[in-house]
Amino acid sequence: MPKRLNKSAELVWTRMVSISGILVDRIEANLKDEGLPPLSWYDVLLEVERAGPGGIRPFEIKERLLLPQYGTSRLLKRLADAGYVTTADCVADGRGQIVTITPAGRDIRAQMWPVYANALRTDVQEKLTGEEAEQLAALLGKLRPT
């Protein structure tokens, strides 16, 4: 017979989901106010930029960002249409593609970072001491699937 869910576990879950949504919505609003693309674009551009000149495969982006396949494909198409990434056939695998960042992609990601960083500063750093932030990060790390 399954164990009953305790109130503490339920409280942790509802607060994580609620607060995560609130913080992401604030960052999205701040980016929009500045005329910048959505946060999901930043995350993908960062992964592509980190991959370096050799690029990255779409499935690697999907795995790193925990995106659904259809969402990854649509997002990469929008980024390519905006001129922020390019895609090319993968030489090692005729079916796959390699995604690389363009100079415009680097520029827009760099423009987005101060807005993102300011939100992190305001909504996390200014509300938690350094020790509290480290404790929270460690606790949340325990919830990461292995």
From TrEMBL:
Residues 1-145 form the HTH marR-type domain. One of its GO terms (biological process) is response to stress. InterPro entries: HTH_MarR-typ (IPR000835), MarR/SlyA-like (IPR039422), WH-like_DNA-bd_sf (IPR036388), WH_DNA-bd_sf (IPR036390). GO terms for molecular function: DNA-binding transcription factor activity. It comes from the Bacteria. This is MarR family transcriptional regulator.
